[in-house]
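Notes on consecutive records. When two proteins share a document, each keeps its own sequence and its own token line. Never mix them. Below: protein one.
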Amino acid sequence: MGETLPTPPGGAEERFAMILSVAVGVFLLALKATAWIWTGSTAILSDLGESVAHMAAVGFAAYSLWLSSKPEDENHLYGHAKIGFFSAGFEGAMIIIAALYILYAAILSAWRGPALVHLEIGLILTALGALLNGTLGWHLLRTGKRRSSIILEANGRHVLTDCWTSLGALAALALVRLTGWVYWDPIFAGIVAVNILVSGIRLIRRSVSGLMDTADPEVTRIIERLASDETRRRGVTYHNLRHRNIGGAHLVELHLCFPNDTMLRDAHKTATEIEDALEQNIHPAARVITHLECGDDHP
């Protein structure tokens, strides 16, 4: 059929990725707390603060992943997958809160005057944290994109922002060690804070777009091409095409126009074939609803 959207989500792989995220997050939280206690670094404290926010977001993301896998019920006729947009928004909010805290800590440290000790221990522990976060973030982001999971993708981006805070702390400690100028510590904390603030705002925007059913032009183009191909080969036309992302699938609605002498039985069969063809080629999944009309009703 030509172009399709990404492949469908795989529940087992998503669950494993989330469990891995939680386990690594707990370990890194302890690692950064140890590094901060030993060094007194504001940059490491800001890294620790980002990890605390991240763990809160991971908890919500894990709950969202579990809820999104539940089937439809009488109160949620389209399932629960749209919780993914809330999860992305929550992660974005946590990132923004962490960024504002880091800025506050950096300004306070610069005002009072930084005091750092045991820089070698801080360098080793922070480097280890950055390596683990970078690897985990890359894995989550890749899995989320491949499985079309906004929950994992948002979590991966949050982990990568955590990696940026670790790299910022690492650079600050290295410069302090090389130059002896302790103000590198709050300066890098502030730079990292601005960087992750931008990342958080982007996640919030994506969450709002999903909740407001903002149409993706690329998705629209693909669905229109598929609908045109399937209707043309069956000698019918379509109009009033609409679609929206309901979390784990695209809900697609369109009106089909048949020749006036078409029997209802034949029209229904053709409509079902078109629905099946679209659902098989729109990923991660699709629910297609058609409305049958006579051609003369829409000349």
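Protein two starts on the next line and is unrelated to protein one.
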Amino acid sequence: MDVNSFYEVVHRRRDVRGEFTGGVVSPEVLRRILSAAHAAPSVGLSQPWDFVLIRDVGIRTAFRDHVQAEREVFAGQLDEERSRIFARIKVEGVLESSLGIVVTYDPQRGSPAVLGRHAIADAGLYSVCLAIQNLWLAATTEGLGVGWVSFYREEFLRDLLGIPRQIRPVAWLCLGPVRTLHTTPDLERHGWRDRIPLAQVMHEERFGRPAQH
């Protein structure tokens, strides 16, 4: 892959909701995507992630119903204008996607001495997020879509999948072929929020001092 191809994938990546076709993801492609996720950097080489593949319709339906209930909880907290916008936004593709991948965080992986985590307790959690990003970019390269579902309670998902108490479910990712990847992210298309200009979030030497370049 040349330099331009990499940046094209980064900017083409989208959080997919309603565009899944339900088509098959071949074992070879799935293994490549998960291998890319597993190659992510991790604090102290702890590799604190696991990947739970969910194809069972009953499990996915139970999770979808939970997500819909949490959507209603969130909607009830919005003012009239935000509620109107939110009503147009789809928040999951649990049943439409080909499968779900639940990514978890095991804080005990690599213990008792995780090199580099003594001062930043959340460094292991950050490592899991790097694995998720690798997975997402690999899936985009393969022509697949990924949707990160965040409308759930950790305890519900832990109980649903039999995840041990010490392990955190970090993400339910919907994965599968898509009809298209929109040029503009869903939340921006629907008017929920606009992307912040890069210059606004760049600082130089001290926080709050605008960068010169």
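For the record: The chain has one domain: 3-210.
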